[in-house]
Structure formats: structure tokens, C-alpha cells
Amino acid sequence: RGLIGSLAQTISGMVAAVKSAVATVLAEMASIFDTIVGKIKGVIDKVWNHIQEIWLTLKDMFKTVKTAIVTAFEVSWTFIKKTLITLF
């Protein structure tokens, strides 16, 4: 009984140690994974912000170009009308 009892105790101690080690390793892996995911998310957020800034800049540029074209057309049209009125 004494030998079997101490053997069972040793085995149960080893199982507990392995469980503890596995739990520690898993916790470390989870922590590392969280850090990696956090960094990736940070990069994606930064890239997304840049894309939004670029998009807004392009929209502003298009608006400016459109306004310039419309203004140029109106000025030209006014000039053409005046010229036609003067000619005829």
C-alpha cells in the first residue's frame, strides 16, 4: 500500500505539474497572440485612416477641378454670347 500510494502521489504530482505548465504556456501564447492581433489591428487602422484622408483629399480636388471647369465654361459661354451679340 505504501509503495502504490507514493507512486500514485508522484504521478498525481507530475500530472499537476504538466497541467500547470500547459496552462502557463497557453496563457503566454494567448498573450502573444493578443499582442500580435493588437499590432495588426493598429496597422490596419492607420492604413484605413490614410485611405480615408487620401479619399477626402481626392474628393476636394475633384470638387475644385469641377468648379474650375464650370467657371471656365461659364466665362467662355458669356464671352461667346457677347461676341455673337456684337457680331450680329
Provide a descriptive summary of the structure in words:
This protein is an all-alpha fold and 88 residues long. The protein has one domain (1-79). Helix content is 98%, strand content 0%. It is built from one helix and no strands. It is rod-shaped, with a radius of gyration of 38 Å. The chain starts with a helix and ends with a helix. The model has no long low-confidence stretch (mean pLDDT 93). This is Phage tail tape measure protein.
Defining traits:
88 residues; mainly alpha; Phage tail tape measure protein
Secondary-structure topology with pairs:
Layout (H helix, E strand, L loop, with lengths): L1 H86 L1
Organism: marine sediment metagenome
Protein name: Phage tail tape measure protein
Work out the radius of gyration: 38 Å
- Tell me the overall shape: rod-shaped
Elements, N to C (H/E) = H
Largest sheet: none
The class by helix and strand makeup works out as mainly alpha
Outline of this structure?
With 88 residues, this protein is an all-alpha fold. It has one helix at residues 2-87.
